[in-house]
Amino acid sequence: MNTDTLLARLGVDLTRFSGSDPVRSPCDGGVLAAIDRAGAADADRAVERAHSAFRQWRTVPAPRRGELVRLLGGELRAAKEDLARLVTLESGKILAEARGEVQEMIDVCDFAVGLSRQLYGLTIASERPRHRMMETWHPLGVVGVVTAFNFPVAVWAWNAALALVCGDAVVWKPSEKTPLSALAVESLLGRAAARFGGIPEGLAAVVAGGRDCALALAENPLVPLLSATGSTAMGKALAPRVAARLGRSLLELGGNNAAIVAPSADLDLAVRAIVFAAVGTAGQRCTSLRRLIVQRRIKAQVLDRLRAAYASLRVGDPLEPATLVGPLVDEAAARRMADALARAEAEGAIRFGGERIAVGNWADAIYVRPALVDMPGQTAIVGEETFAPILYVLAYDDIDEAIALNNGVPQGLASSIFTTDLREAELFLAAEGSDCGIANVNIGPSGAEIGGAFGGEKESGGGREAGSDVWKTYMRRVTNTINRGNDLPLAQNIVFIT
User: Fold this and answer.
1) What is the DSSP letter of 377?
2) Interior CA angle at 227 toward 474 and 189, to 5°?
3) CATH assignment of 3-253+461-479, given 3.40.605.10, 3.30.200.100, 3.40.50.720, 3.30.1490.20?
4) Are 110 and 41 in contact (CB under 8 A)?
5) What is the pLDDT along the chain (498 residues), one digit of tens a residue?
6) Which residues partner with 78 through β-bridges?
7) One of 286, 385, 424, 459 is an active-site residue; which one?
C-alpha cells in the first residue's frame, strides 16, 4: 500500500500535499509527501479560532464532551492498522510498537470518557457558622501541544483526550518529521465530530510547522497551558517564554534512565526487560534505558548474556514482522550516536556493536547495531542523553552506591531495579531512593501505562501527563464560600465594627 492510498483510507485530503517541503521516511529515506509548512502567523490564527471555539465548548456538559472522545476512540479502533502503518513509515518504529502507540490513544480515550463524569471538587469545613466552602473546577482555555517524532500521535492523545473532556480547545504543533500522522489524526477526529453532530470550528487544530510555530504558541497569551514534549533544550527554549507571560508549562523532556541489577535479580527476566528497554524504538524513547548499573560480582555474567542477546537482534525494515530494531530517524541522529561512542571510548569504554549497517538498497536510510558499552565509571558522556540505542554498563558495590549513580545525572525521568530483596526494592521506591518521576521494580523503565501519571523531575521537566489526577492541569480551580446565615462572622475571629 503506497502512502497516498494509506492517507486516503485515513480520510486525509491529498490536495494538501502539493507543497515544496518533503516529508521523508526513515525506513528507506524516500519522500512520503510534500507539504507547505505553517508559520507563526498560522499558529496565531489557529489559536484565535480555538479560543472562540473554547468559549462555546466550555458550556457543553462534561459527559457530553466525553461523548466526542468516545467517538474518537471508536475511529481510532477502526483505523488502528492504517494509522500504525503510517506511524511506522513516518517515524521508523517497528510496526508492533506503532500498533501499541495507537492502542495507547484508544486507552486514554477510554480513560477520559470515564473521567468526564468524575471532575470532582471538594466540600471544605468552614470555621465560620452557617458557611460552606467548596472547590470547583472550570475549563482552562486553549491548550497548546508540541510533540516529538518518536511518539507522533500518542502524546497528543494523552493531552487532547483529557483537555477536551475538561472543556478546553487544543492547538497541536507536531514534529516537523511526522506531520502526516498528525494530519491523519485530525481527519479521524473530524469523522468523530461529524458523528457527534458538529463541534465548534477550530476546537482541535493541527499547525504543521517548525520552531516558529512552537514559539508562537509559547508566547500567545490566549494559550494558558503549553504542553511540550521533546528535548531538554527545547523545554529550556519554550518555558521562559511561557513564564514571561505567567502561563503554565507542562514539560516532558529528556531522560537518562537507569536500571539497577542486584545480586538477587532474576537474570532471565532482567535481560529480557533490559533489551527491550534499551533497543525498543531504536533507543529513541525518552524512557529508553541508557544506563545499566550492575552489582560488580555479577557484571561479567550480565554482560555475557546481553552480548548474546544483542547478537541475535534483527535490525531492518520496521514493517517486517521479525524486525526488532528499525532505523534511526535521520543522519543527524547517526552523527550524535557516533560522536557519543567516540567520546565513550576516549573515556575508557569497551564497546560491543554500534556500527552502521546496510539494509536493502536504502542508501539514504540510517540503520545501526545497538551498542553495549562497558564503562569504567559514570563519566561525562554517560551523564548526557544520546537519543540512540546506546546502553552504558556500570558496576556498583552496595545499594547506596547504586542509587547514587541512578540519581547522579541531570535528568530524572524513569528508573528501575531488578531484585528479589524486599528491603532493596522498598529502599529504591522510598524518599531516599530513586529521584525519578517513574520508579519500577522488576520491569524496565519504558512502556508506561496510561493509568498512572507520566513524567519526570529535574531536567526531565516536572510535567505529568495521562492518568491519575493530572486532569487538574487542564482546568482552573475556584474556591467558593457561601454564607447561608444572617450574620457576617469573619475568618480568624477578626472583629470589625462599623
Assistant:
1) S
2) 75
3) 3.40.605.10
4) no
5) 688 899 999 999 888 777 889 999 999 999 999 999 999 999 999 999 999 999 999 999 999 999 999 999 999 999 999 999 999 999 999 999 999 999 999 999 999 999 999 999 999 999 999 999 999 999 999 999 999 999 999 999 999 999 999 999 999 999 999 999 999 999 999 999 999 998 999 999 999 999 999 999 999 999 999 999 999 999 999 999 999 999 999 999 999 999 999 999 999 999 999 999 999 999 999 999 999 999 999 999 999 999 999 999 999 999 999 999 999 999 999 999 999 999 999 999 999 999 999 998 899 999 999 999 999 999 999 999 999 999 999 999 999 999 999 999 999 999 999 999 999 999 999 999 999 999 999 999 998 899 999 999 999 999 999 988 999 999 999 999 999 999 999 999 888 877
6) none
7) 286
Active site residue 166: no
Which amino acid does the sequence have at 395? Answer: A
Tell me the domain boundaries of the chain: 3-253+461-479, 257-441
Q: Are strands 356-357 and 367-368 parallel, antiparallel or unpaired?
A: antiparallel
* Residue labelled with grid coordinates 533507543: 283
Among 67, 101, 104, 252, the one annotated catalytic: 252
The CATH topology of domain 257-441 is Aldehyde Dehydrogenase; Chain A, domain 2 (3.40.309)
Partners of 132 in beta bridges: 482
Does residue 286 have an active-site annotation? yes
Task: Using a cut of 0.70, tell me whether the model's pTM lies above it.
Answer: yes
